[in-house]
Write a structure and sequence with these properties.
Helix content: 25-40%
Number of strands: 6
Number of helices: 5
CATH superfamily: P-loop containing nucleotide triphosphate hydrolases
CATH class: Alpha Beta
Distance between the termini: 19 Å
Order of helices and strands: EHHEEEHEHHE
Number of domains: 1
Strand content: 15-25%
CATH architecture: 3-Layer(aba) Sandwich
Length: 169
């Protein structure tokens, strides 16, 4: 997929682009008791992305330690001189609530999706790889991840490019 996104970005060396994954932003996204569609962006996520967009000095973003299932504040340095910042996240293009304000921060939004059954298999595998037994992995994926995926697919807007992986043959 990376090869298909904006060919002009590939003229930049890896040193000239940085990635901010969504996983470090979990504390900014939803409290544990929220389920879609009530899940809304927390002001911290918007503030972080706005600071990065306007930065004259390096900024710090959270990362996520999946093995411990926790976010680690300020663990990722974002260089203010980096011309391309790739911000990853499931909810970033939602058309509702405070997420709508976040979408305005992006110069070239890209939506990457896929067939729900393929996504579900990948999510269950992720939870299995993180120590859950089969039943626990399925429960974790179906109770949170799959409803969130449905929300993202049904409510995401304003992508300059869309890439969707088909279901398996």
């Amino acid at each position: 997929m990376g090869q298909a996104i904006k060919p002009q970005y590939h003229t930049h060396s890896r040193d000239n682009r940085q990635r901010i994954p969504s996983t470090g932003g979990h504390p900014f996204l939803c409290s544990a008791d929220q389920k879609p569609p009530t899940c809304v962006a927390r002001p911290g996520r918007y503030a972080l992305l706005k600071r990065i967009c306007e930065a004259k000095h390096d900024q710090f973003a959270p990362t996520f330690d999946r093995a411990r299932d926790i976010a680690i504040a300020g663990a990722r340095r974002v260089n203010a001189q980096t011309p391309i910042i790739v911000v990853e996240g499931n909810y970033l293009l939602l058309d509702c609530g405070t997420w709508a304000a976040i979408t305005e921060l992006f110069a070239d939004p890209v939506f990457v999706g896929g067939a729900l059954e393929r996504l579900e298999r990948g999510l269950v595998k992720r939870w299995r790889d993180n120590g859950y037994d089969s039943a626990g992995a399925i429960e974790r994926a179906q109770s949170n991840d799959i409803p969130n995926a449905d929300l993202v697919v049904s409510r995401s807007v304003r992508a300059d490019q869309r890439f969707c992986q088909p279901s398996d043959p």
